[in-house]
């Protein structure tokens, strides 16, 4: 047997060092941000540190495809917990949405329908006056669906404080991380990919930092996928998955755009059961809030017609057509076309597998999740309002279908926090056209460069399979 070369002897040592240094560097970067007393005055630092953390994740993705990491589930979850603990007790600085959450949750616990009246029309109790003052857009009835109200109530029950509600949302987020690891194992994918979400700056800042509820919706989406994969062949499993997906959509409406593609994962003999479970779950969650629940449409209508933020495609179309309404309709049409295209391509790819319609295979599940990733990307690039936490729908799917475009977009949305500087100091909300353009063009450029790199690598080695083009 020939003797080992020095490079062969040092390779395991290098892999060990990388496995240790990457989580340590990640934790150190997050600690820099956690020590900042006011993130709204440290937006350049936030952008720079999160960029460094994102580049480290990109390195993990690129290197891990050829030299997998050996992180155990305990290490991945332990580091994820540490990163979130750095921010969970801090005030919610970058967003004030959590005060609306607390107001709604308190109303539910008090037996008051949160859809009955807008906060501006209600006189707060003594202990709720400070929360009431911090609510944004008090003139609108809550825009959050019924399942979100139950999450708010559960989190508010933990002391009725920002920290208590954030801690509850972080707990759900850690469950999401655990389900990501479990689903990766079930699909035959390496579990190190879970760090693309678990150690990502976006969920840490938006859930542990600002306390956004979007992660809870995506946790239920992954739960629906897991139920389909494990028990989708049975009536109960398919119906249960449909009900869980309804709950995901009724926490935040965004998962609805993933519905057509997810439906393809349901075995054909069980699709009626999935649909029935969805309808039953949505009805069961909605009944307690009737009849006032219908008022949510007024708030959703105002949001759909009037809200806009960091939407490059919307701004471009409005400038070209001279009509915001026409631009919104055009973007809805584009999104629907993207959903239809992703659904059709996934269905066409599954056509040869019709003989296995009674089961959900790992290949089917990976294909569906990749299509969901594409739909989420289309949603974020076409929405007139792109708040940073909206990208959590994409971040959740990174471990299953990650490519440069998705990784870059989950960082680029943080650039929009530039508006916090003049708003905090002067009280003026001033958006930057350059930032809006960068948020859109950064992932598009990354996608194009990824495609070129992928083709170049495949030309050199046809056996190479890389996520670079996604």
The average pLDDT is 91
**Strand segment count:** 0
Major sheet: size, sense and barrel closure?
A: none
Q: How large is the radius of gyration? A: 23 Å
What's the order of the H and E elements? HHHHHHHHHHHHHHHHHHHHHH
Q: Counting H and I runs of at least 4 residues, what is the number of helices?
A: 22
Q: What spatial form do the alpha-carbon principal axes imply?
A: globular
* Low-pLDDT sequence parts: 4-9
Strand content is under 5%
Structural class: mainly alpha
Amino- and carboxy-terminal Cα gap = 43 Å
How many discrete domains? 1
Fraction of residues in helices? 55-70%
Keywords: Membrane, Transmembrane, Transmembrane helix
GO cellular component, one term: plasma membrane
GO molecular function: hexosyltransferase activity
Transmembrane segments: 16-35, 41-62, 74-94, 143-162, 169-192, 243-266, 272-290, 326-345, 365-382, 389-414, 434-453
List the helices and strands and how they pair.
Elements: H1 6-34, H2 43-64, H3 73-88, H4 97-109, H5 129-134, H6 146-156, H7 162-186, H8 195-198, H9 201-209, H10 214-231, H11 235-249, H12 259-263, H13 271-286, H14 296-306, H15 312-321, H16 324-350, H17 362-382, H18 392-395, H19 398-401, H20 404-412, H21 420-426, H22 433-460
């Amino acid at each position: 047997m020939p003797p080992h070369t020095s490079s062969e002897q040092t390779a395991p040592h290098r892999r060990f060092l990388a496995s240790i240094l990457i989580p340590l560097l990640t934790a150190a970067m997050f600690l820099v941000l956690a020590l900042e007393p006011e993130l709204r005055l440290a937006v350049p630092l936030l952008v720079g540190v999160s960029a460094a953390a994102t580049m480290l994740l990109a390195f993990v993705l690129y290197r891990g495809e050829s030299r997998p990491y050996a992180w155990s589930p305990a290490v991945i979850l332990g580091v994820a917990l540490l990163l979130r603990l750095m921010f969970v007790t801090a005030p919610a600085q970058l967003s004030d949405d959590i005060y609306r959450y607390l107001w709604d949750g308190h109303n539910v616990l008090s037996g008051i329908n949160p859809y009955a009246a807008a906060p501006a029309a209600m006189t707060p109790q003594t202990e709720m006056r400070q929360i009431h003052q911090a609510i944004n857009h008090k003139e609108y009835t809550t825009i959050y669906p019924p399942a979100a109200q139950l999450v708010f109530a559960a989190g508010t029950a933990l002391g009725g404080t920002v920290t208590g509600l954030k801690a509850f949302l972080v707990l759900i987020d850690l469950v999401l991380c655990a389900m990501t690891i479990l689903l990766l194992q079930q699909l035959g994918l390496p579990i190190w990919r879970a760090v693309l979400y678990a150690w990502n700056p976006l969920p840490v800042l938006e859930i542990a930092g600002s306390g956004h509820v979007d992660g809870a919706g995506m946790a239920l989406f992954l739960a629906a996928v897991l139920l389909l994969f494990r028990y989708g062949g049975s009536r109960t499993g398919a119906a249960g998955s449909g009900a869980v997906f309804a709950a995901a959509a009724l926490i935040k409406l965004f998962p609805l755009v993933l519905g057509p593609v997810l439906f393809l994962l349901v075995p054909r003999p069980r699709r009626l059961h999935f649909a029935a479970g969805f309808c039953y779950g949505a009805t069961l969650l909605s009944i307690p809030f009737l009849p006032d629940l219908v008022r949510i449409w007024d708030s959703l209508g105002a949001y759909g017609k009037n809200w806009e933020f960091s939407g490059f495609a919307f701004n471009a179309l409005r400038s070209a057509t001279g009509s915001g309404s026409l631009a919104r309709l055009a973007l809805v049409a584009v999104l629907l076309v993207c959903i239809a295209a992703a659904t059709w391509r996934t269905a066409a790819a599954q056509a040869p597998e019709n003989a296995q319609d009674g089961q959900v295979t790992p290949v089917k599940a990976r294909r569906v999740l990749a299509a969901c990733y594409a739909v989420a990307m289309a949603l974020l690039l076409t929405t007139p309002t792109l708040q940073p936490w909206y990208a959590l729908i994409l971040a959740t799917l990174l471990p299953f279908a990650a490519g440069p475009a998705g990784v870059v977009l989950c960082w680029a949305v943080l650039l929009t926090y530039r508006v916090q500087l003049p708003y905090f100091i002067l009280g003026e909300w001033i958006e930057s056209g350059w930032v809006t353009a960068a948020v859109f063009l950064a992932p598009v450029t990354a996608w194009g460069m990824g495609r070129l790199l992928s083709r170049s690598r495949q030309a050199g080695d046809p056996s190479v399979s890389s996520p670079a083009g996604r």
